[in-house]
Amino acid sequence: MAIKFKRVNYIYQGMDGTPFRALKDINLTIEEKGEFITLIGETGSGKSTLVQHMNALIKPTSGQVEIYGIKIEETKKKSSKIKLNPLRQKIGLVFQFPDYQLFEETVERDIMFGPMNFGISKEEAKKRAKEVIQLVGLETGYLERSPFNLSGGEKKRVSIAGILAMEPDILVLDEPTSGLDPKGRDELLELFLSIHNKLNNTVLIITHDMNTVYQYASRVLVMNDGNLVFDGKPIDLFASPKLSSWNLDKPDLIDLCDKLSERLNITFENYPKDLEKVVARIKAGYHE
């Protein structure tokens, strides 16, 4: 167990000064290795607030977050004196907007900043920068470029490289594919899956895309009005009668299969994850 939430609540002041309860009695455990998790829910449901607790960017109003054995409690308690850098090295958080993380003159210096801040030598940080820039699918020539002259997709990759250079055990990404075209989205998701498979670390992605959940996740978390209302396998989520009450849609392939089952009287014992298998099942149905 790497991260454990125990009845965590978080309250902040709204724009009009009214207290708003963003998290409500959250109980959750995240493992260190092997999980590919998606976190979904409507805008304002508490997703970003939840992940900011995972590396103690914010602390609970009440309850407790335990991160690698270190107990993080409300700010007034003794956890406010805990040194948080070691925890943040283990839990790498990539923000939705890469400009929040890019500030150095060159890509190389940007990537090196995190490791050197954690005590890594300049030589080792340079070595890591060269390794991770290639891991995120960019050539080493990018290291000499200014991060501010890159495309949106390239900036996202560089911001991810900067986190990977710190060698986190858990990689948390806040809507990393937002603003990308379908090709760029798919390339980035395949990159995350490749990193997950290569490093055997846990990856947690905040997303609004149900197709991403269905195609990639081994586990899905659903937030609704500050509550964690589902924690399980994607296929169980999309079979849940509560899906519409959480304002979630089915993935395109599952929706297609359901419509085919209804109109053509074709059954699917297991929902396929690619269109070719759907076509093959239709052809088989006409020959039975």
Write the SSE topology.
Elements: E1 3-13, E2 19-30, E3 36-40, H1 47-54, E4 62-67, E5 70-72, H2 85-90, E6 91-94, H3 107-117, H4 122-135, H5 152-164, E7 170-174, H6 182-199, E8 202-206, H7 210-216, E9 219-224, E10 227-232, H8 234-238, H9 252-264, H10 275-285
Parallel strand pairs: 3-8, 3-9, 6-7, 7-8
Antiparallel strand pairs: 1-2, 1-4, 4-5, 9-10
What does the model show?
The chain has 288 residues and is an alpha/beta fold. The protein has a domain at 251-288. The chain is built from 10 helices and 10 strands. The strands form 2 sheets. The protein has a 6-stranded mixed β-sheet, sandwiched between helices. Strands 2-1-4-5 form a 4-stranded antiparallel β-sheet, with helices on one face. It starts with a strand and ends with a helix.
Spans of at least 5 consecutive residues whose pLDDT stays below 50 are none
The N- and C-terminal alpha carbons lie at a distance of 49 Å
Structural class: alpha/beta
Beta strand count: 10
Kindly report the spatial arrangement of strands forming the biggest sheet. 6-7-8-3-9-10
Estimated helix fraction: 25-40%
Radius of gyration: 21 Å
Element order, helices and strands?
EEEHEEHEHHHEHEHEEHHH
